[in-house]
């Protein structure tokens, strides 16, 4: 299954890289405020679906082309996580594919085309990345809060929460080495698993934003919860992903707001 997911993510990522020189002629649409989509997103999803068609009995849920929301076994696809970055030629975006079985995400891949890094994991099998042909086991880096770097995502689907977000942003700026807003939730989660970031906090995400990241983060040793410390993140879209050394501190501060 991981080989299939990796092949699909890689081929879609290859297409995204090749399509960057077409951006000036591509029509950009707004699904909502600051929520962009283009034909490139849709074509990327078609590539993923074509390859996943090797498992025809498993339904597919994709961000752009929809699918089966209710099946407890399905592939969950984000064909271009970080569309705004991509459109503006900011090299931070990813292809994300999760595999859900029995109502649980049990395998996932996140592919960073710009750096040619494939992150992948299966439940109980550890989390890994491949770059330049070298496989590396992923693990979080347990730093203290004052030496950590945190990534956060602006709640563009919940504008009324912006004041709470800015309050958290300000709190963490002064209590860490820094806060970054990178623009791709999937890649942020992968970078927590890889020890680049020490935590990631996001608001009101969709299932395809986080599905693959759930198993990758957990298998790396990170803690993955909703904003109340529970497991309703697929329903609420509110997530905290953090190394064990700072998770409780972050959870407390998020709960405070």
What structural keywords apply?
15 strands; 257 residues; 8 helices; eight-stranded mixed β-sheet; five-stranded mixed β-sheet; alpha+beta
> What order do the helices and strands follow?
HEEHEEEHEEEEEEHEHEHEHEH
What coarse outline follows from CA principal-axis ratios?
globular
Helix content: 25-40%
Question: Count the strands?
Answer: 15
Structural class: alpha+beta
- Runs with pLDDT <50, length 5+? none
Strand content: 25-35%
Radius of gyration: 17 Å
Average pLDDT value? 91
| Main sheet specs | 8 strands, mixed
Strand order of the largest sheet: 4-3-5-6-7-8-9-10
In DSSP terms (H or I, runs of 4 or more residues), the helix count works out at 8
- Distance from N terminus to C terminus (CA atoms, Å) equals 40 Å
Could you explain how this protein is built, in words?
- The protein is α+β, with helices and mostly antiparallel strands.
- The protein is built from eight helices and 15 strands.
- The strands form three sheets. An eight-stranded mixed sheet has the order 4-3-5-6-7-8-9-10, with helices on both faces. A five-stranded mixed sheet has the order 12-11-13-15-14, with helices on both faces. A two-stranded antiparallel sheet has the order 1-2.
- Strand 1 (28-32) and strand 2 form a beta hairpin.
- The longest helix is centred in the first third of the chain and has 18 residues, at 2-19.
- The termini are far apart.
